[in-house]
Amino acid sequence: MNVIVRLNPVFWLSSRSLVVNGGRSLKNVFAFRGYLKYSTISIHENENLKFENIHPALIKRAKQLKTELLDLEKYLSEGKVLKAEESKKFSQLSSLSRIYDEYGNEINNYKELIQLVENDDSLKDDALLELEKSTVPRLKYLVSKLKTRLLPPHEFHDKPCILELRPGVGGNEAMIFTQDLLGMYERYAQVHKWSYEVLSKNEHSSGIGLVDAVLVINEPGSYNRLRLESGVHRVQRIPETETKGRTHTSTAAVVVLPKMSEIDSNSERKFGPDDLRIDVMRASGKGGQHVNTTESAVRITHIPTGIVVSIQDERSQHKNKAKAMMILRSRLAERERLERIEKERSDRTSQVSSTDRSDKIRTYNYAQNRITDHRCGFTLYDIEGCMSGEKLDDIMDAVEAKETEDRSKSLIEELENGK
Fold this sequence. Notes:
alpha+beta, Alpha-Beta Plaits, Double Stranded RNA Binding Domain, 3 domains, 9 helices, globular, methylation
């Protein structure tokens, strides 16, 4: 008997209906002929046997990039030396090529298993099991990785990062939450064995909570991993000082910047004699005999943009100035990147949603043991695991997947429009 199998979003194919499990259930399967269509591929209603294939425009792009890799390999085979940018491109294309080749092998394996299900009654159960447990999960993973590799890399994807944290609304509870977030990112760096340092940390005069903090993670590529943490984080919980058991809502802002070295900045930017105003002053707060006795604190103002950076952590004025200049370079680089992105968006005829927006990105609800990221709708029921840094990757992965999907749609539109 023939049945109709629907392939979302638009394709329909005719296929055989096979009786399995002693005749108690039906599995609708189909064999592919020629090119595998871009669609959500499903066999009956088993969610474990569905995956969304790569769009033809992205496949075409992958083939073009493979051709570029072959050209670079030919160039190397002639004994020539690649420049720094070419060498970086060669590494990226090689990685993409490996994933694309593995994807092609898995697609062929998928087709062969479908053929077994259709044509070999003695092996169809084993083939279905392999599809569900091995081939389809692997294809989902490769589709995701291939989409990511096909997207243009982020401008500062290979940089270390700087995280700036400040309390928002909520008074003392907001400052305590800021301290909690700083601890979360420190523990996240520890989980991944990344080098980090607290560049600056100003405690509230009461000794409870933070007025602001700056965390530097020195791992190359950490900016690309953490950049989507930028935004307003919201906490809902009962403060320790609350006597009536009421839940309070507080916020803290996180800004993630690429850490720019002096070499990076010198090659891109020169400060004019009137661009900076550097003020030195006596440090305030805790710190012993050097506080309020030596002019070690430094405040740098970038006059064209109005950006102000103040550092007073070190006893040495020169060290504080070096730290302040590093943060200033990073803020300027990020500011210019965001201005370029905004200009590109304003030039488009159609706007796409993005995970870059800086509104409330995530809620931490302690009573429900829940963390929800509002950009992708992902929810994790493990406050302790998240704040310890061990489960934070689960949330980051979901946000990155949403961003990849959005950017892929935008790239497909550009490719189809011949941009």
